[in-house]
Each structure stands twice: as C-alpha cells, then as structure tokens.
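Q: what does this look like with zinc ion bound?
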Amino acid sequence: MKRLVCRYRSDEEGYLVAVLDCGHGLHMRHRPPFELRPWTLTPEGRASRVGTEASCVRCDRFERPAEWVEYKRSQTFDAAGLPAALGRDHGLREGVWAELRVHSGALTLSACDATEGPWVLAAPSTMNIAPGWRHRVTLGPGCSFDLVFYRAPDATPAGEH
Ligand SMILES: [Zn+2]
C-alpha cells in the first residue's frame, strides 16, 4: 500500500528509518553501490522527502504495528444491527488500525479494489484492517463480530471512520 513519510528516526544500529503514516518503519540506507540514497545524508535531504509516498509491504501483509495501543472497542454487531456504512465501501481513517474479531458464524471481507481477497472469516478468527484501506463487510447467517481500535502510543484521533 502507498503510505506517506511522516518523519524519521534512527534504529538501534543508527540506520535511518522513515516513519510512515501507517505506523510502520522503512529503512532508508545509503550503501553505494547497492542502495543509492545520498539525500539521507543531510537534514535538508531528509526533510525534502517528508510527505512523499512510499510502498509499505507490512501494510500489504496487514501487520498491525506492534507498539500501537488499543484505545476502544465497538459493540458486538450482527446482521440485524450492522451499520449500513460497514456493508458499503468504507475505510478507517488515517492513524487508526482495527482488529476485526469474528465471534460466531462467518463473514466475508472484500477489498474495494478487488486486487486481493475476498476473505471469508469463520469464527473464531481475526483480521487486521489497515488505515485507509477500502473494504466492505458481508455477514453470513448467525454471524457476530466486533472491532478493536488501535492508535499510535502518542496519538489522539477523534474517530474511526
Ligand atoms: Zn505500513
């Protein structure tokens, strides 16, 4: 998935890591002749890349950032009480990951761009949902599920959708 570079930090070995808006880090090494990123060597060069796009393979694998913290849980939804918005194309806002937990029955999660999936999740199972990833949910008979929301340890978002 395409993500935005928010800022930089150093890893334990002093290598530069770009922090993306999904919460994942991406190593930015300058190791001639194998990897050429001379812009990483100056503050101006690094600043010039803030706000640019990068591909995040960890989002592609739906890996929730390990250090993100739970801050809210939804009610338990079933077919009768499913908010219409969840059955249409929608996505989490930036800065929020969710874990969808199927407690009974099964549901189908479809990606709006249809590049992957759909995924059929039968109880008990869970799936991480990445920020901004457009999807929709279709419930099977007797299905119930809820959502656990996560944010960065230093964040205070206003809502989920
Ligand atoms: Zn990511």
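The longest strand covers residues 2-10. The longest helix spans residues 43-49.
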